[in-house]
Amino acid sequence: MKAIKIGILGLGTVGSGVVKLLQDNAHKITNITGCELKVKTAVVRNVNAHRNVDLTGIELTNDFTKLLNDDEIEIVVEVMGTVDTAREYIKRLLQAKKHVVTANKDLIALHGPELSELAKENKCDLFYEASVAGGIPILRTIVNSFAADQVESVLGIVNGTTNFILTQMTQNGLSYAAALKLAQEKGFAEADPTNDVTGKDAAYKMIILTQFAFGKDITLDEVKLAGIDGIQLEDIKEAAQLGYTLKLLGIAKLINGKLAVSVGPVLVNNSRPLAAIQNENNAVLVTGKAVGETMFYGPGAGELPTANSVLSDIIAVTKDIVLQTTGSRFNDYSQKIEFAKANDIVYPYYLSLLTPDKAGQMLKLTEIMTQANASFKVIKQTGAANGDARISIVTHAMSEAQLNEITEKINNLAEMQLLAAYKVLEEEK
Amino acid sequence: MKAIKIGILGLGTVGSGVVKLLQDNAHKITNITGCELKVKTAVVRNVNAHRNVDLTGIELTNDFTKLLNDDEIEIVVEVMGTVDTAREYIKRLLQAKKHVVTANKDLIALHGPELSELAKENKCDLFYEASVAGGIPILRTIVNSFAADQVESVLGIVNGTTNFILTQMTQNGLSYAAALKLAQEKGFAEADPTNDVTGKDAAYKMIILTQFAFGKDITLDEVKLAGIDGIQLEDIKEAAQLGYTLKLLGIAKLINGKLAVSVGPVLVNNSRPLAAIQNENNAVLVTGKAVGETMFYGPGAGELPTANSVLSDIIAVTKDIVLQTTGSRFNDYSQKIEFAKANDIVYPYYLSLLTPDKAGQMLKLTEIMTQANASFKVIKQTGAANGDARISIVTHAMSEAQLNEITEKINNLAEMQLLAAYKVLEEEK
């Protein structure tokens, strides 16, 4: 039987999970691939650190070149994180004709095209299923099952940390600060949660999803980005009363053949399955012209779910090695496609405003809306503290250009404050 | 550029959809595969029938041997239905070294192992993604993404007709007969709905899912089978009051390493996403030891969703032709595994009973339950017509052996009638 030796960069949570799954499921993996897969070497910072996994037969080293120069090692799993060092290591590994599996979304979002090109030149596989939505096999599914379809949109909850925070605020009435603290205590948020709560992590995932669904490489500054760090509990409660749940959604969508990609808070109509995705779970909706709406749901992170996605990549590489077909890109679809303009990107919006509770304020607001040719679906005024009134609006669909006009005019009014302007995802037609 | 010629057996709904998608997405398919895919010949019963698709350049014939003997045709799509003729044709096609893609679940459930073996012998691909859950790419996902995991259960709504009927009964209070009639009017149920409403169609799909998830070939008589043809609206209403939605579920599950496969009505706790899957949609939950619970949701049937799954198979074959790697089984996983016994298969149950509204009846019932060592979670008595009382029970988990004992004893009581005994799927722990 062919034996395939594996190297691992990093033995943190995911790395340990990979070692564990390879041990636990060795029999099944051999049954499927006809090969024996064994981790030979792990490169770690501290070889003496205690690790919660059986490392018998695995050489631990802090010397990357030991792995790099070992001709026996055919597949390397990069789960060390970082961007620059990982990029450098992976380039050298590919040049040394080693196949690479990585879970590093930042790296792939920033340098995926360059690394994929290098892999192809060296007839190596470079797979990264675990980089998006943890345990949900969304990338390979898009490659395999939407190949003959035209994807119209990919949208979803692709960051478990923010979904946990929003779920806690929605279900238990926690403030943003209290929900963030709970997420940190439970290990769902890092000590520095910036990348998650600003939406940057979700944006990286949308960059990768966009490449797979639409065949276009985009950069972070081409994603219209908003986070949840400014979310008020008031708006979540108001949304609930109106029949919506606030979610941080990534949306990549074709509009008249042009692409718009955004990450931001969205009010999701409660009739949609997406509204019910709770806590650290992820869900990705892929709508194809032929197939219609499909949804893929599962754990967005965690040791074993993420390790399982890494393993599915390792098995895909193994099959390619056996069949001598390595060197195909993970996603071979590419097309030229322009970005949609602010005039084309049309959604209903939820607006919330604070204004002194006195005559004439609603008139000013309706004048602004009318000038922008925008119309209300729901408008609701309630009392607020200090003699103020709080106005909540759900608009009919309008363009980003209209929204910008309205926002600017409201901001120019001394007595009216725009608290929130979120997209709305209405029920499915 | 390499041109690949395709033959089609049958130009009904799905066949026409395949022709249409190949035309509409020719550019993208070429972009991905580097090949030009063209339908050359379609074998149909009536070459003169009107068809709602552009057939320019496609030869229509009622002579199967014309396709069989055409060396130019490399891939054949079987969407003609039937079991015996389709089996015979596919055998001859594989022997003639043609790759086959089929959407025929009855055929694959009954003769999949034989045909897969024959395909392998002839170094041909035989794919059938469209045979289960229409537009949901569940089979290839299990092959690719659960390869390194141990699947613990595969369960879900795999028949759109019955889910449509149950949704209409639940949401609009239709009787079973009225809901079935509506399904037939809307084209979701056939004139003879037997295969759908008895659960047989779902059982065929569970046979195929069991092969993929657990690597075991099973037969129809090894699936514990119940349909929805005896469902009473009363029980659906009662379930709703107790917080459950009645669904026809296929369940294939490992219990202490042994397999149990069933199809039947199940009360699904409303907190589960599965309870919200409506009308003709399908959803499959796959729970892996490592990855946890994942769910795949989408349209369960329909011209274009099903055709899209056929196309994903055609593209997979094309890639294999280009890479010269045809002849691998669709699913290469197999294991020896026993069936679980009635003592091991444990669920909570919903029971509904009719009894004269007089003293002592509840005592008899509780005696029977106690003798079987079974206990109640909920018990509820309401008045019924003709001086009868209706009793609804949700039990704690008990084995099929206990259920059988209880059922037999109740059936032996002259004055008590067991109306329903359905499994209960409680909220996720």
From TrEMBL, chains A, B:
Which GO molecular-function terms appear in the entry? Answer: homoserine dehydrogenase activity; metal ion binding; NADP binding
What Enzyme Commission number(s) appear in the record? 1.1.1.3
Binding of L-homoserine occurs at 190
Can you tell which superkingdom this protein's organism belongs to?
Bacteria
- Binding-site positions, NADPH: 105
Sites binding NADP(+) sit at: 9-16
Record Gene3D superfamilies: 3.30.70.260, Dihydrodipicolinate Reductase, domain 2 (3.30.360.10), NAD(P)-binding Rossmann-like Domain (3.40.50.720)
Active site: which residues? Answer: 205 (proton donor)
List UniProt keywords, sorted A-Z: Amino-acid biosynthesis, Metal-binding, Methionine biosynthesis, NAD, NADP, Oxidoreductase, Sodium, Threonine biosynthesis
ACT domain location is 350-429
Keyword Cell inner membrane assigned to the entry: answer is no
**Cross-referenced InterPro entries:** ACT-like_dom_sf, ACT_dom, Asp/hSer_DH_NAD-bd, HDH, HDH_cat, HDH_CS, NAD(P)-bd_dom_sf
Enzyme class label: oxidoreductase
Q: Which GO terms describe its biological process?
A: methionine biosynthetic process; threonine biosynthetic process
Q: In which pathway does it act?
A: Amino-acid biosynthesis; L-methionine biosynthesis via de novo pathway; L-homoserine from L-aspartate: step 3/3; Amino-acid biosynthesis; L-threonine biosynthesis; L-threonine from L-aspartate: step 3/5
**Catalytic reaction(s) noted:** L-homoserine + NADP(+) = L-aspartate 4-semialdehyde + NADPH + H(+)
Q: Which cofactor(s) does the record list?
A: a metal cation
What family is this protein classified in? Belongs to the homoserine dehydrogenase family.
List, alphabetically, the NCBIfam families matched.
Answer: PRK06349.1
PANTHER family, per database record: HOMOSERINE DEHYDROGENASE (PTHR43331:SF1)
Q: What is this protein called?
A: Homoserine dehydrogenase
| UniProt organism field | Ligilactobacillus apodemi DSM 16634 = JCM 16172
Q: Taxonomically, what lineage is the organism?
A: Bacteria, Bacillati, Bacillota, Bacilli, Lactobacillales
